[in-house]
């Protein structure tokens, strides 16, 4: 993406974030209503009283032992061969992605592309590009599935040229779709290293958490997780489970980059998870976001019937595609004037294509009737954009 | 440093950390007695109650606006031209160092060395080396000062070949010495980019905080600060003030690497600093560490008179030099058996030289009479090492 456009989008987003009357249907923020403030307070008090050093002193680069054991337990319950020693606590999922990317870049030099969905998480795409990799979609295109040639020599050859494959299983970003069936099989059969970003994996509306890719390709999967979506982002805690032969390099990188993840955040979580029923929290979050998703989809279908989107299976957003030959950033500017924001589609596209118009619309942080109001404002901006073009 | 030796040191350190009867005179940990747990608790409660979004939601990559204003105010009071907009909050000083290093590496390709003190902070040295830079000491050697040729054409030429100069002003690590006079002048006259790591700058025993290098070379200094030494490390909060033309690149890197620093840690600090007298805390810390430093030095002089060290002017440690032809890691192993640890001198040396024997001895995290006991154990290990050699 051109720097100038990127800046323009950022300026718009920042300006809107400062105006409370603008409805934020961009950004992918979790709902503040779900932040477990009481539980966090109790965990904080307990951690500081009984685990002062664990909370406030320096720790080891791999992170809090109790928290790593919790991560490993949950992954083992889903079929993966993971011990606490395999887990590295990171500053959110983003740092886990960055570490995996840097290690793989060092290992697989000369392979200058990363295979991604046709639309994917912008900060991952930016990271890959900043590392000098092209983002390509030779096969794992967003909606198409595979062509049934999984594991053939051709597939393997195709994957051999990429540094790695980046996927967001469970509920992708921005489409909120799972990774299943032939596509999953093809990915596993490819032999390529996989960065599996489970940011939304536990927020599927059907309550089913997919078998982690890690469980089927332990030696090639760089597993990434986080508490940012299901609990809250402010702790800035995620984790990386690298292949066993990548752990030492990943840990050195972690040490060089920031020594360790915040002890306090980790200690709060370690306390929290000894006292709460994580699955009850997840169930509540799934129902909550499903209701918002349904309300947004109904409003979109009613108000903007020409806009196409797949029904999300989880996550925070729908990805809207249109036939309109409009610029997404121009539309964002108009939408902001109408009191609503969204994320321009170009940010998500592996190809960086700007046309036809597409947009990510997030339902996660907009409550009740404000979802319909947001869609009305989007429609008004869209109509105005159409008039301007004529 | 060879990977094998590095691992051996780490294994020893980890084993000792798990044994409460081992006195930790290595590691450079701040004293837990100074952790402001009550103040942190009050700040946490206040932040969560009144600033929920600021504490728990995603924020912008540059960090909490109130915290950045606090950093800028304090730097301005010391003579530097810094606004809140110039400050990037980072995951501790280490991430600030890493960002500065990566940006400078991108800008100054082909310059494959970093100028450092003859002894310096190990995690910075490791970072530079991991980035492919040699650590060199053409001029800013630990104790010698300059040769009076500051700013001459020769000096400038010398510095032109380095990617940057890394210094720890105020109180260096491991020597705890200030950066003054001719050395400071030469550095400023050199024209080279400077990474100024102020980790210990506010912990000088004389209570004087040196004028920041930033105040005299705004366009070349990458200023690094942290709350880890004066408050506590567990929040994992530091900051970077890059030259103005480096800000955009630094901020992009921050965004790619971990999106932002933990909102909760930042909000706690922002609350804390509106309610406390930071300078009173600093005064207490200075007196506290000065007392420990004096007690350690007295014990060393009494028990190990052949060991040489400069008196620290601040910080957490002394750097001991000896004439002994002993291996520092062998000595560490013996010391651990005697119930005390230290940091092997090779970790700090730009040259990576292992002989003659040197060691960093930290007084920061050892209380009262345990300092004398620690020195007795060091002496016993040292005597035993001497016997083994014969």
Which characteristics define this entry?
homodimer; 390 residues; alpha/beta; 7-stranded mixed β-sheet; 3-stranded antiparallel β-sheet; 13 helices; 44% helix; 11% strand; globular
**Could you give the order of strands across the largest sheet of chain A?**
2-8-7-6-5-3-4
Point out poorly predicted stretches of chain A.
140-150
Our Rg estimate of chain A from Cα atoms comes to 21 Å
Indicate the overall shape of chain A.
globular
Number of strands of chain A: 12
Largest interface: A-B, 51 and 51 residues
Rounded mean pLDDT score of chain A: 92
> Roughly how many Å apart are the termini of chain A?
27 Å
Beta-sheet strand percentage of chain A?
5-15%
Quaternary structure of the protein: homodimer
**Backbone structural class of chain A:** alpha/beta
**Largest sheet, strands/sense/barrel of chain A:** 7 strands, mixed
Characterization of the model:
The structure is a homodimer of 390-residue chains. In chain A, strands 2-8-7-6-5-3-4 form a seven-stranded mixed β-sheet, sandwiched between helices. The first copy, chain A, has a three-stranded antiparallel β-sheet with strand order 9-12-11, covered by helices on one side. In chain A, α2 packs across α10 (263-275). By secondary structure, chain A is α/β, with parallel strands linked by helices. Chain A contains 13 helices and twelve strands. Chains A and B meet through α2, α3, α5, α6 and α9 of A and α2, α3, α5, α6 and α9 of B.
Q: How are the SSEs placed, and which strands pair?
A:
The structure is a homodimer of 390-residue chains.
Chain A: H1 3-17, E1 23-24, H2 37-50, H3 52-56, H4 65-77, E2 88-90, H5 92-107, E3 113-115, H6 122-130, E4 134-136, H7 153-160, E5 164-167, H8 181-189, E6 194-197, E7 221-226, E8 238-241, H9 247-258, H10 263-275, H11 278-303, E9 317-321, H12 328-337, E10 340-341, E11 343-344, E12 358-362, H13 369-389
Parallel strand pairs in A: 1-10, 3-4, 3-5, 5-6, 6-7
Antiparallel strand pairs in A: 2-8, 7-8, 9-12, 11-12
Helix pairs in contact in A: 1-12, 2-10, 5-6, 5-9, 11-13, 12-13
